[in-house]
Design brief:
The complex is a heterodimer of chains A (465) and B (516). Chain A has 20 helices and 2 strands. The relative contact order of chain A is 0.10. Chain A has one domain. Chain A is mostly helical and 465 residues long. In chain A, a hairpin with a 3-residue loop joins strand 1 and strand 2. Helix content of chain A is 78%, strand content 1%. With 516 residues, chain B is mainly alpha-helical. Chain B is globular and about 70 Å long. The longest helix of chain B is centred in the middle third of the chain and has 32 residues. Classes of the chains: A mainly alpha (465), B mainly alpha (516). Chains A and B meet through helix 17, helix 18 and helix 20 of A and strand 1, helix 6, helix 7 and helix 8 of B.
Chain lengths: 465, 516
């Protein structure tokens, strides 16, 4: 019974998703009600998670419920709310999207908490399948192409993950993360099989986190998917992957860091560099944001490597800030138009749509880590932790990457502010898209506010962890 | 009160959002009034400043910002900061005054950028918390980037990009050093850190000194980090060039004097000669480059490289005269180069060209402009009786104490400065009045005279009675000398020995200020 009490927010969400499906069948005329209904549900999720923030324990031996996990739930809720608000204004999207958004969020919540490989797989597939469906939902050629691509590659990586899990089970006789740690601690384990198992699991997870060299799907999928969906993949899915990393590397492989430290170090450096350099060459804002998401995954490896209470609070802070700015940026992309994501379409946007351009600039500058915006604070914490833990070289590489990334973020600003628009703009006004406008404005306000006054939030997070 | 000076321009950006873009006059009046009030506020600082404690940080303000890691919004100014804050608010005010005809598009954004930048610049000069310093330091980049990129000349995109990427690259080193210090000592408090870091072993000091100094050297810019400067200065709009040259470059030197030198005295003694050599290369190279420029704004930009060389030369002598010279010359350069950029802007407004060959014979056509141009140009040359002379003389005298060779090379630089500036002036103002357009050029309007006259007043004031200003910087430089070169404090002697030999009049009552 007490186990069930631990997972009340998850249960509520699952029930809500089912209710959504049924109501969706009944309501034929006022579809917008469904949107409002979903919004209420996500807001409710936020509140329930907030209420259960301090509850901790292990549920069913599979889910490690802790304030850290619940804080990430809040981040997922924020990501889902931003995506949903943008979604509501896109008339061509069917209502099933709302359902997948809810189940995807459920998957993300479970993924960030699991300490068991069966649960890991289930949660991962719940999340992934929702995302595959969301990407292909509109049924246009581009959507379908992106959806199929995502699905095939995702299934491929799931196969790796399953293989790894099977090997680990063969070695340890248990699906629990902790069993792996125990096996490692014992002398005389089969090192070859262990490394193979680790490699398979690692490949599967790195794919989900879109880390280099398993990142190739990201720009294509992001380009094809509707902007709110791409934003959701870039934020919620990625944050969930890193929540998972922390428990995999914290619980499953804590005693033998040499094996995976080197791996993570290279994954981090490669992901930063490849993400940032590839973004330099991109002429499409959506693809650029995809590579930027890859690069940010590289930064997020740093706290995973550090572990301990510092890293959890850093991950939460970074995840929240990253979600606000990336989600906001994708929301603006949705306003400008999914089909008009080439940089040329942003020419002179500051002249034709000054407010839209200004808000996008806030997000981009924050992504580039320019103070006093939230992105700087998040990066500052991350690199301070790195310095403190002796990862000096990694921190410096990260800081240098920050400068590289400034180039492509600012290039969009150059197009918007320093070039003349070509002909009449087709970009709709923010006024006509109320929900999106609310999402963008709230995200931008939070980005600015957290940059100027990060103290209360940081204290709140640190107080819990 | 200091906090108010920092936040006032920032807060005053909000109403601009609600003003209509069409209301040209309202917008400019608003901007000028706001920056004028800001100037008055900063003059209030001057009024309440306790000169007896000029080496200490006054108007101390402290607010919690990031209590979790012990960073707080902490500000305060000493004599050096005070002068630079005043320079900033003055130039920003004059910048607005000069922009009313020049900026024709996106006025609202322009005013917002300028005000944000003003706040950030004042913030840089008054931050007493390393993290807050860094925030201001970086926050200033974005509005400057917009100023260059949106309202600049033809090649503005390239210049804006080069400026911001170059500076950000330097900032990375600064941030790394700040974080490292925090991890080591657990504080961002500048005063506490400056005490703590002196105990570091030489090897650690050297690395941190280099990290910070490279960041500051890019801003100064010290040879060979100067390549962003000619582009940025030449392409920026007038007020942008003025603030770039007048204030932003000073932030680099300020960083050296506030961070690098007092924090790492042992490393300073090791690297000061190298800084001096780079400064000398900068002086010579900058002067030679200036000589061959045909573009008026690029010419002034390169002359900044040379002038900043003098400032760094004086600073790296690390004695009383050199530091005094460097600090005074920071103000001087802001006034005279700022003035030159204002004039370049006025000429550009009239002729829409910056090519030296397009001008000529202006003395006849526009006498008022020519006279003011002449005074400011001579101040930049370093004519005795004007401000440039005092600063450069002190800097060279300080360098002389360290090495005769430095002083000799530096003196050659002064001669070169005379050569290129007088050549330029001769081409623009005195040669034959051949072109029709030049003959029909209109002379300065009252507004433009109002822009230039305050500068000229200060140029003359510092030139004939520098003690007014030196009083503020003297205790500060004495403190730096005390930290870095305690033994040199004895033999260098106090500043009041100087005027008897050179600039003539100096008040006897100021004599007891020195030697603290």
């Amino acid at each position: 019974m007490s186990d069930i009490y631990l997972v009340v927010p998850e249960l509520c969400l699952a029930g809500f998703a089912l209710a959504y499906l049924i109501i969706g069948l009944v309501i034929k005329r006022w579809r917008w009600l469904l949107g409002v209904f979903t919004l209420a549900g996500l807001a409710g999720l936020f509140c329930v998670s907030l209420a259960y923030l301090t509850v901790s324990g292990t549920a069913f031996g599979m889910l490690l419920v802790s304030p850290f996990g619940r804080l990430l739930d809040l981040v997922f809720a924020v990501a889902a709310i931003i995506s949903l608000l943008v979604y509501l204004d896109m008339k061509d999207l069917p209502y099933e999207g709302g359902f997948f958004l809810l189940t995807g969020t459920l998957g993300a919540m479970l993924l960030a908490k699991c300490v068991d490989f069966v649960m890991l797989f289930l949660a991962l597939e719940t999340l992934s399948f929702s995302l595959y469906a969301m990407v292909g939902l509109r049924g246009t050629r581009r959507d379908a192409e992106a959806g199929i691509k995502y699905f095939v590659l995702g299934a491929f990586s799931s196969a790796f993950l399953l293989m790894g899990i099977a090997l680990l089970y063969a070695l340890t006789g248990s699906f629990a993360f902790s069993a792996v740690a125990t096996a490692f601690a014992l002398p005389g384990y089969n090192i070859g099989l262990m490394v193979a198992a680790l490699a398979f699991v690692g490949i599967g997870l790195l794919f989900k986190a879109s880390a280099v060299p398993f990142h190739f799907w990201t720009p294509d999928v992001f380009e094809g998917a509707a902007a709110p969906v791409a934003g959701y993949i870039a934020t919620a899915s990625k944050v969930a992957a890193f929540g998972l990393f922390l428990s995999v590397f914290g619980v499953a492989f804590p005693t033998n860091p040499d094996l995976w430290w080197g791996l993570l170090w290279y994954a981090s450096v490669l992901t930063m560099f490849v993400g940032n350099t590839a973004a330099l060459l991109e002429k499409s804002v959506k693809r650029m944001l995809a590579y930027s998401a890859i690069a940010h995954a590289g930064y997020l490896f740093i706290p995973v490597m550090i572990g301990g209470p510092w890293s959890t609070s850093t991950i939460v802070l970074y995840a929240l800030v990253y979600t606000l700015m990336t989600g906001g940026a994708f929301a603006v992309v949705a306003v400008v138009g999914d089909e008009r994501s080439r940089l040329d379409f942003y020419k002179g946007l500051a002249k034709t749509r000054p407010l839209t351009a200004f808000l996008l600039t806030v997000f981009l500058l924050s992504l580039a880590g320019v103070p006093p915006l939230a992105g700087f604070i998040a990066k500052f914490y991350l690199f301070t932790d790195a310095f403190r833990s002796g990862l000096t070289s990694l921190a410096i590489i990260g800081l240098v990457n920050g400068v590289i990334s400034a180039y492509y973020y600012l290039r969009v600003v150059v197009y918007m502010y320093m070039m003349e628009p070509e002909g009449e703009t087709e970009v709709p006004r923010l006024r006509g898209r109320l929900w999106t406008a609310i999402a963008i404005a709230a995200a931008a306000a939070a980005t600015v506010y957290l940059g100027f006054f990060p103290g209360p939030l940081v204290d709140f997070i640190k107080g819990l962890l | 009160m200091l906090t108010a000076v920092i936040l006032f321009p920032l807060a005053m950006t909000l109403p601009v959002f609600f003003l209509p873009e069409k209301a040209r006059k309202t917008l400019w009046v608003y901007a000028i009034v706001v920056s004028g009030l800001e100037l008055l506020l900063s003059l209030g600082l001057l009024g309440f400043f306790d000169l007896g404690r000029a080496a200490e940080f006054q108007f101390h303000g402290k607010f919690d910002w990031l209590p979790a890691i012990g960073s707080s919004f902490q500000v305060g100014i000493d004599g050096m900061s005070l002068l630079l804050v005043l320079l900033t608010t003055l130039l920003a005010f004059l910048g607005f005054l000069s922009s009313t005809r020049y900026i024709e598009t996106k006025r609202k954004e322009y005013i917002i950028s300028m005000l944000v930048m003003e706040a950030a610049m004042v913030g840089v000069f008054s931050a007493l918390d390393t993290l807050v310093f860094f925030v201001f330091w970086e926050a200033m980049l974005v509005p400057m980037y917009f100023l260059i990129g949106v309202w600049g000349h033809e090649n503005r995109l390239y210049a804006a990009f080069k400026f911001i990427l170059y500076t950000m690259a330097g900032s990375v080193l600064l941030l790394a050093a700040i974080i490292w210090l925090y991890v080591q000592f657990g504080t961002f408090d500048l005063v506490a850190l400056t005490q703590a870091t002196r105990g570091l072993p030489l090897s650690a000091q050297e690395i941190l000194f280099l990290a910070m100094t490279i960041a500051f050297a890019i801003k100064v810019p010290l040879f060979p980090f100067h390549t962003w400067l000619p582009h940025a200065h030449a392409e920026a709009p007038t007020a942008g060039s003025v603030l770039l040259a007048g204030v932003l470059l000073k932030m680099g030197v300020y960083g050296l004097l506030r961070f690098s030198f007092p924090m790492f005295p042992d490393a300073t003694r090791v690297f000061a000669p190298w800084l001096a050599i780079l400064a000398l290369i900068g002086i010579t190279y900058g002067a030679l480059m200036t000589w061959v420029q045909t573009d008026l704004k690029r010419l002034i930009a390169y002359s900044s490289v040379a002038h900043l060389g003098f400032i760094v030369l004086g600073a790296s002598a690390v004695n009383q005269w050199g530091l005094q010279g460097a600090m005074l010359q920071m103000v001087n350069h802001g006034l005279s180069t700022g003035g030159l950029f204002f004039i370049a802007g006025m000429l550009y407004e009239r002729r829409h060209t910056r090519d030296l060959a397009a001008f000529g014979g202006l003395a006849k056509a526009v006498p008022r402009l020519s006279v003011l141009f002449g005074i400011i140009m001579l101040s930049s040359v370093g004519l005795p009786g004007l401000n440039g002379f005092v600063g450069e003389f002190l800097a060279l005298a300080g360098a002389f104490r360290s090495s005769i060779v430095w002083a000799v090379v530096g003196a050659v630089g002064i001669i070169l400065a005379a050569v290129y500036l007088l050549t330029m002036f001769q081409k623009v103002v005195f040669s034959k009045l051949e072109k029709e357009e030049n003959a029909k050029m209109r002379d300065l309007s009252i507004r433009e005279i109002l822009v230039l006259v305050p500068l000229v007043i200060f140029i003359v004031w510092i030139g004939i009675y520098p003690q007014t200003f030196l009083r503020y910087t003297e205790p500060v430089s004495a403190r730096i000398v005390q930290v870095v070169n305690p033994e040199k404090n004895q033999d260098t002697g106090a500043i009041h020995e100087l005027p008897t030999s050179e600039s003539g009049e100096m008040h006897p009552e100021t004599q007891e200020v020195s030697h603290e």
